[in-house]
Amino acid sequence: MRLTRRAWAEPFKIKMVEPLKMTTAQDRERFISEAGFNTFLLRSDQVYIDLLTDSGTNAMSDVQWAGMMLGDEAYAGSANFYHLEEQVQKYYGYKYLIPTHQGRGAEHILSRVLIRDGDVVPGNMYFTTTRAHQELAGGRFVDVIVDEAHDPACEVPFKGNVDLTKLEALIHQVGPSKIPYVSVAATVNMAGGQPVSLENLRAVRALTAAHGIRVILDATRAMENAHFIKKREAGCADRTIASILFEMCSLTDGCTMSGKKDLCVNIGGFLALNDFAVFEEARNQVVLFEGLHTYGGLAGRDMEAMARGIEEAVQDAHMEARIGQVQYTADLLLSVGIPIVRPTGGHAIFIDARRFLSHLEQTEFPAQALAAELYRESGIRTMERGIVSAGRNVETGEHNTPKLELVRLTFPRRVYTQAHCDVTAESVEDVFQRRDSIRGLRMTYEPKYLRFFQARFEPKPAR
Ligand code: PLI
User: Fold this and answer.
1) What's the 26 CA to ligand 1 centre distance in angstroms?
2) Protein residue closest via CA to atom 13 of ligand 1
3) 82-100: per-residue pLDDT in tens?
4) pLDDT grade for 462, boundaries at 50, 70 and 90
């Protein structure tokens, strides 16, 4: 027999470590109860392996840290801004750059500039902050993703694709003048980190161009999307991630970006655009909400780390290891029968909580209950991506009830080892063995916006 388990071995070695905190089962019982059964409300020193998010939790390289020492902290015209602008132009290909403190800063500015009251913004599934800013600006999000994206078991290569029939019907129904842009996320976080194909992006471009509608890319994990295109799309196997990324961006008019994901930094984002008039208005607005247009809420050193992160993260070997680690852990879970969203996504594994806890109703918050239970079992922190994250319908006030009721195990870049992956899979298996004993939850506190961050729960009494 030949061993192939290390096919995705990391193209780096570790030179600084951070000790992890160990807790007892008794401690964790108390901590999760004090946190209102919401993993966002745990303190990080109560957590062993933190798979809450891949956002801002990445390990920077020595080259990025060295760049931090070259921060030009001038209020205006920092050298690091010009380096970042150069890198964005080179790898993403957009003409104009506005740095923002993180992705939602860019979403805020873009939504204010382009969306008018009563507008409709089609997108390939919602993302929490993206939709919140579209709604705050007076827009209405309409989901135009392919139906397969809502089915966790369906195994197709590009589950993030836009359904062109749905998009075309919407354009005819509301009229192109009511659609400021189509919002295309690559990859699609809420669908399980699923990619969009180049073919689909080209078709979206052709359809929208015929109606004079812009396309804005959520490029937060676009490099991961490019990796999937390289692996799965006909004719792309010999291309570099960099060339695929560039082509993806060339099919759009601009992007919002959370650098905290793909770009392996702890803070930062940007808005990048090709249209000077839109850029000019965004540049006017950024000074109100983020900071001057050459720093947008970031220190010079943060822009430098992001500029250097672009070049590192776009390397094929980096992405092979990054996504290889996620796939490795997913394969372990599949081998012991854990129901997860298929195919495995780029940044995370999504457990199908409906199937895992099939005895619970969606209104008993199965994904929230499972995330709390995984923490209690082993100190691993995960995140709910189901009915709690979906919030309420702005018109009716009822819970939105997404088909996907998921728990996300999200992998920070360059942070955890293969042994951590093994511990994670073993812990999920232990909880799976006693799944029938897990009770649903009742919400005891519900915040007004993005409720999943701060909502509190208590276990429902045993039936
Ligand atoms: O967290 P921000 O503000 O830097 O970025 C917002 C954001 C925009 N788009 C997408 C696809 C995201 O995934 C995203 C943030 N995601 C978080 C925080 C996550 O845990 O997935």
Assistant:
1) 33
2) 189
3) 999 999 999 999 999 999 9
4) confident
Residue 77: left (phi > 0), alpha (psi -120 to 50), or beta?
left
Taking the domains of the chain in order of start, what are their residue ranges? 25-47+316-457, 62-313
For residue 54, the ligand 1 atom closest to its alpha carbon is 20
Please state the pTM of the whole predicted model: 0.95
3-state SS class at 40? helix
* Atom 8 of ligand 1, residue of closest alpha carbon: 103
* Phi, psi for 27 (deg, rounded to 5): -55, -50
DSSP label at residue 3: -
State which of 130, 224, 261 you would mutate to test the pocket of ligand 1, scoring each by most atoms of that ligand within 8 A of its C-beta.
261
Q: Is the CB of 104 under 6 A from ligand 1?
A: yes
Distances from the Cα of 287 to the Cα of 145, 192, 292, 296, 302, angstroms: 34, 35, 5, 7, 18
Q: What is the pLDDT of residues 232-261, one digit of tens each?
A: 999 999 999 999 999 999 999 999 999 999
Ligand 1 center to 125 CA (angstroms)? 14
C-beta 124 within 6 A of ligand 1: no
Active site residues: 75, 127-128, 218, 261, 385, 452
Name which CATH class applies to 62-313. Answer: alpha beta
Strand partners, 140: 120
Write out pLDDT tens, residues 38-60.
Answer: 999 999 999 999 999 999 999 99
Per the DSSP assignment, residues forming a β-bridge with 100 are: 269
Over residues 49-74, the mean pLDDT reads 98
Domain 25-47+316-457 belongs to what architecture?
Answer: Alpha-Beta Complex (3.90)
Q: What residue owns the CA closest to ligand 1's atom 5? A: 103
